[in-house]
Design brief:
By secondary structure, the chain is an alpha/beta fold. The protein has one domain: Aldolase class I (TIM Barrel, Alpha-Beta Barrel). Helices cover about 35% and strands about 20% of the residues. The chain is built from nine helices and 16 strands. An eight-stranded parallel beta barrel has the order 3-4-7-8-9-10-15-16, surrounded by seven helices. It has a four-stranded antiparallel sheet with strand order 5-6-14-11, with no helix packed on it. Strand 15, helix 7 and strand 16 form a beta-alpha-beta unit. Helix 4 packs parallel to helix 5. It starts with 9 loop residues before the first strand and ends in a 14-residue tail after the last helix. The structure holds flavin mononucleotide. Flavin mononucleotide binds next to loops.
């Protein structure tokens, strides 16, 4: 019973994930070999890097800076573009029966639709809309991520053309995140992914007397964002019926159980890979099983969730 891995397998939007752990967008999901390596080491669902219409070089280095409690990144959405990105997904999915989420990013609805049509023709299992960009504003200067109207518009347009389930990935850097979650659900989103990076934040090198990141500021992730991610997931879970991928600051089994208790169906593990290495997935899986044994839970869905607000 103790090590029976089927106990932590999760059904998600009609697909079976061998474990509850998800590789979030932007972390090792750029190539088929990275996807394979992640899956072989205990990850249940893999998300590609956010793919755009054209390849993007991203910002010049340094693009990652660590600090006590987490890290900042200003990658600038570097990616090989939708064609090459999907070729990697297809290569992986040709050989492995492991669900893949294709993350896409655009600044217009038309481009989101074109990207979705391309994903339709791929072997990707889900499409995730990266709706977390702080740099795209509407006529009032409101970032896309903060506008429930814009988020709903994009989700419902994509739902009209997508042949696979649609996941809305949302930003924590807004007021009224729960309203944006309910707007995404009402627009037809099949699931939510919460949260993208927090901030942006900044670090200064006092010896070089300059900002550590080339771009000065970057999105914050890792252990320091966990309380914000848990709050976002719990509040959304209290209001929506669709499943949630809880992502943000999970680096051990107890963190993962917290995320499940907050209401997540699956748990993203991103920045923890930088600190803990690829073995972190298996470690977290084992820790979840140990927790389940300690409290007598047969399967992962027996782990209780907090009472809704
Ligand atoms: C280096 C790096 C690159 C990222 N790239 C993306 C991306 O391309 N698209 C996206 O939606 N999120 C991206 N993220 C955000 C993560 O997917 C995740 O939501 C966030 O880091 C919080 O989870 P964590 O604390 O487990 O890392 C990136 C994060 C990091 C650290």
């Amino acid at each position: 019973m103790k090590n029976d891995r089927s106990r932590i397998s999760v059904e998600f939007l009609g697909k079976r994930a061998a474990t509850p752990l998800v590789l979030p967008a932007g972390i090792m999901g750029m190539t088929w070999s990275g996807m394979k390596y992640t899956w072989e080491n205990g990850c249940g669902i893999i998300t590609s890097k956010s793919l755009t219409m054209e390849p993007r070089k991203g910002h010049a280095g340094p693009v990652i800076a660590e600090f006590e409690g987490g890290m900042l990144n200003c990658m600038g959405l570097c990616n090989p573009g939708i064609e090459e990105g999907l070729a990697e997904v297809n290569e992986f999915r040709k050989f492995y029966e492991v669900p893949v989420i294709v993350s896409i990013f655009a600044t217009t609805i038309d481009d989101f639709l074109t990207l979705t049509q391309k994903v339709n023709e791929s072997r990707g299992d889900f499409v995730e809309l990266n709706l977390s960009c702080p740099n795209v504003s509407d006529e009032y200067g409101l970032p896309l991520a903060a506008s429930k109207i814009k988020v709903a518009e994009i989700v419902s347009a994509v739902k009209m053309v997508s042949k696979i389930p649609v996941i809305a990935k949302l930003s924590p850097n807004v007021s009224g995140l729960t309203e944006i979650c309910t707007a995404a659900e009402a627009a037809g989103a099949d699931a939510l992914c919460l949260i993208n990076t927090l901030g942006p934040g900044m670090l200064i090198d006092i010896d070089l007397q300059r900002s550590v990141l080339s771009n000065r500021t970057g999105g914050m992730s890792g252990p320091c964002v966990k309380p914000v991610a848990l709050r976002a997931v719990f509040e959304a879970y209290s209001r929506v019926k669709i499943p949630i991928i809880g992502t943000g600051g999970v680096s051990n089994g107890r963190d993962a159980v917290e995320m499940l208790m907050a209401g997540a169906s699956l748990v993203g593990v991103g920045s923890a890979l930088y600190e803990g290495g690829i073995g972190i997935f298996e470690q977290i899986n084992q820790d979840i099983l140990t927790y389940m044994d300690q409290y007598g839970y047969g399967t992962i869905t027996d782990i209780p969730r907090l009472e809704k607000m």
